[in-house]
């Protein structure tokens, strides 16, 4: 039986002869980055076997090997939002926990149950990323018989964060009284151990349709005295994280027409005001978080996060200030916008040079396929906006405020987002970032027991718009994929 020796961790992992290296590492609790889910298409699960660089997903173990894992930069996770604890009436006495389970990252907040003040916060990369950057990859993995492993991964991650925030505040996890959790439908179901089969085929109906309270001990045994709040999903692919955004922004009570956009691997949006709300999910894909891009990476040290023009040349800023190792979503939007301004990209997104690449420096460049991935993502989001506007019977210019939620929305350059057509140009001056609005909503749920019941009321008021079923979806999407040409 071959052994994988990992000197840096002083660990040995015994495996069956011929076992896949990626699978062996995952079973040993080591999760190389694998945005494609281990399908061999992204080329990012690089490790060193006996000094030679290989892809873990394409390597089998047929002998004793020495493994070196690449250094991983700390992920830049957004904690801040627009949270204000206006009312404090939690379900139970004790300290409060609020979780935002994202497809990419998991954020935990510890709150004082008597004052609502935030005592500590912590975050980490969602360990399920080893099974793919997007929810579809993880749904497929769960349906292949790995549901228990995916559930265990996220629960263990959450308990690690619970230990961290409790240690910071010098309290015991046994003193936690309430735990609120928000996340997209797939993340919620995997956390709860519910098969995501409903999300794998039409009509993609939600199974979490009502607010519930259950003992936390069966799912998060580290908190034996806590109650767990289960927040209902709005629709099959519009989840409790969007509900959290609605609670913290107060869109449901506004007079003015407001567009709430949370762009991640799944672009979730709500348009409306106190009189009417329409929600949709745009299949933006993981490109805007660095996946499916040749040099794409998450927002961590070494990532190009902004690109601008200086004397007709592209200039880049890099997170951490060192050499560029890749490019994250905000930098990707900037780079495409710069390419449009320079005339390097035409209306159809074709790169206008012989190499068919856009150089950004330090060996980092965008390929023609990278540009197509951006077009697909921005086309999906823009199509969702336009079809919601049409459904409501208004025009884009009637939208008075655009609220961008999440880390991507906070670091995004609004002008460049409009230049590439991610958001309609007429809305540029109305864009505001609202930070981790989902996490802020989770805090409100933990602090005020009436908020959980109110989520059930909101789900009844929101109309879900299935984009692909709209008669003009294909035409709108095709047009939304194009770029506007610069006027010179």
Written overview of the protein:
A hairpin with a 4-residue loop joins strand 1 and strand 2 (11-14). The strands form 6 sheets. The protein has a 6-stranded mixed sheet with strand order 10-9-8-11-13-12, sandwiched between helices. A 6-stranded mixed sheet has the order 23-22-14-15-16-24, sandwiched between helices. It has a 5-stranded mixed sheet with strand order 2-1-7-4-5, with no helix packed on it. The longest helix is centred in the N-terminal third of the chain and has 35 residues, at 135-169. It contains 11 helices and 24 strands. The chain has helices at 21-27, 135-169, 185-192, 240-249, 329-342, 368-392, 406-411, 414-419, 437-447, 449-461, 473-480; strands at 3-6, 11-14, 19-20, 46-49, 52-55, 60-61, 65-68, 95-101, 105-111, 118-125, 176-183, 212-215, 227-230, 258-262, 267-272, 277-282, 303-310, 313-318, 326-327, 357-361, 364-367, 401-405, 431-435, 462-464. 29% of the residues lie in helices and 24% in strands. With 488 residues, it is an alpha/beta fold. It starts with a strand and ends in an 8-residue tail after the last helix.
